[in-house]
Amino acid sequence: MSATDTHPAAEGAAICHLAGTEVHLLPDRSLWWPAGRTLFVADVHLGKSDTFRARGLPVPSGTTRDNLDRLSAPIARQGAQRLVVLGDFLHAAEAQSPAVLAALSAWRVAHAALQVVLVRGNHDSHAGDPPAGLGFAIVDEPWPIGPFACCHYPQAHGTLHVLAGHVHPAVVLRGRGRDALRLPCFAVEPQLTVLPAFGEFTGGQTMTSGPERRFFAAGGGRVWAVPGMGATPE
Question: Which residues 6+ apart lie within 8 Å of 218 measured at CB?
């Protein structure tokens, strides 16, 4: 990877090179590929709070609209022509409720020119594909684009750099004494990058360090490389 800045970056983004092309790791937990005018996100989990409430769990409402608003922001800011969702766009079958689908339809109308590709993940298999009227391209992994293989599950690919989600990666930053802060992160290896969960109501899994794995933490409106190949796992 290289830190050479050849495209203007969004405020707080970290710039690196994957498979010979520049990408921007954005504070909102999306990945921007300038050369392809493509924004990548993983694990949006739309309708998760609706699903929980339908199953009798008292959780806050409004997360679907909040997540869609958060998704609109980098699309507009970067001028994206394509959005690739690396799996788990909808959380469950209950997410296909009238309220969620109405919010999603309104979002799609506002981004009618945007190409949207959904790489099916495990939650998509249970939730079912989004309605055909939304005009999404629904594909199975691995889906190739440029130097990347778009997947939901982290895996190896013979020639392409894999972009994946599924594990909701996080790191724990430790200070003096017992101070600790857990943050979502991008986990970057020579042939694999795992994106943090984009959805706000998702949680995360602390990842361990590896000899070729680097962590880029997202928090406080910026993304930065965690020193020492990442944080000590919990």
Answer: 25, 26, 27, 28, 29, 183, 184, 185, 186, 196
